[in-house]
């Protein structure tokens, strides 16, 4: 039997000292992990401050400043209503008279303009453009007025310009009921112009010279277009 002393005794596996093993674990834990490229770029984009030249992100104030102003329906409707109805023309009444009846025409205009309705009147010798052509001024006065008051007197029937205005008023609005208002002064019904036979006239022999009826006729027509 062989002696036990001829075989070497097995050596125990070598072990690292405990202190070195602890140091190795601490180094492994303290070493930062490498992130994937996508996560790293995302982290870099979030943490990196924006450049000075980059425009700032729009805040609440800038968003509100870009909001278009609201459309005011009332303003547009008011603008459209001002361009129609009574205010679509410069005058409510054009008083057609002869030169010798200027005083009576001025009294009528003062009555209409001084009423509560504050009617806008065109009086030729007061409102016509100085230096303007007579025909152009007469036609412009008629087209710029809603109603036409014909101050029919003996002088009106003898004045060619008054007759021209009367025919022009009838040709512009032959069927416009209430626009042309004849006011008879100092004449009988027999002298009433034949061109106006289809219209009622206002008799100026009353206490107020028929001015009140003229005003009421103008107001009735203005109500139809308002």
Provide the CATH architecture of the domain at 91-225: 3-Layer(aba) Sandwich
> What CATH first level of the domain at 91-225 would be assigned?
Alpha Beta
Question: How far apart are the termini?
Answer: 143 Å
Q: Per CATH, what is the topology of the domain at 91-225?
A: Rossmann fold
Helical proportion, percent range: 40-55%
Multimer state: single chain
Strand order of the largest sheet: 2-1-3-4-5
Name the CATH superfamily classification of the domain at 91-225.
Toll/interleukin-1 receptor homology (TIR) domain
Report the C-alpha radius of gyration, rounded: 51 Å
Which residues form runs of ≥5 with pLDDT under 50?
Answer: 1-5, 38-43, 60-82
SSE string, helices as H and strands as E: HHHHEHEHHEHHEEH
Name the beta content range.
Answer: 5-15%
Sheet/helix structural class? alpha/beta
> Shape, please?
elongated
Largest sheet: 5 strands, parallel
Mean pLDDT: 76
Write a structural description.
This protein has 226 residues and is of the alpha/beta class. The chain has a domain of 135 residues: 3-Layer(aba) Sandwich (Rossmann fold), CATH 3.40.50.10140. Helix content is 44%, strand content 11%. The chain has 10 helices and 5 strands. A 5-stranded parallel beta sheet has the order 2-1-3-4-5, sandwiched between helices. α5 links the parallel β1 and β2. The longest helix has 15 residues. The protein is elongated and about 135 Å long. 22% of the residues are buried. The N terminus is likely disordered. InterPro entries: TIR_dom (IPR000157), Tol-interleuk_rcpt_adapt_Tirap (IPR017279), Toll_tir_struct_dom_sf (IPR035897). Adapter involved in the TLR2 and TLR4 signaling pathways in the innate immune response. It is found in: Cytoplasm; Cell membrane; Membrane. Pfam families: TIR_2. Homodimer.
């Amino acid at each position: 039997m062989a002696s036990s002393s001829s075989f070497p005794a097995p050596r125990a596996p070598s072990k690292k000292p405990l202190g070195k093993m602890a140091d190795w674990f601490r180094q492994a834990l303290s070493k930062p992990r490498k992130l994937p490229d996508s996560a790293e770029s995302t982290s870099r984009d979030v943490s990196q401050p924006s450049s000075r030249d980059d425009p700032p992100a729009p805040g609440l104030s800038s968003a509100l400043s870009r909001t278009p102003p609201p459309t005011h329906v009332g303003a547009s409707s008011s603008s459209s209503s001002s361009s129609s109805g009574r205010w679509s023309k410069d005058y409510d009444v054009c008083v057609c008279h002869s030169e010798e009846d200027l005083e009576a025409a001025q009294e009528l205009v003062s009555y209409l303009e001084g009423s509560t309705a504050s009617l806008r009147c065109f009086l030729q010798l007061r409102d016509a453009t100085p230096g303007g052509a007579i025909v152009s001024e007469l036609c412009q006065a008629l087209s710029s007025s809603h109603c036409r008051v014909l101050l029919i007197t003996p002088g009106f029937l003898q004045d060619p310009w008054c007759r021209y205005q009367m025919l022009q008023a009838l040709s512009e609005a032959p069927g416009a009921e209430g626009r042309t208002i004849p006011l008879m002064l100092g004449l009988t019904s027999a002298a009433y112009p034949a061109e106006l036979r289809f219209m009622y006239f206002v008799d100026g022999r009353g206490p107020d010279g028929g001015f009140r009826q003229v005003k009421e006729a103008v107001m009735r027509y203005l109500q139809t277009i308002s």
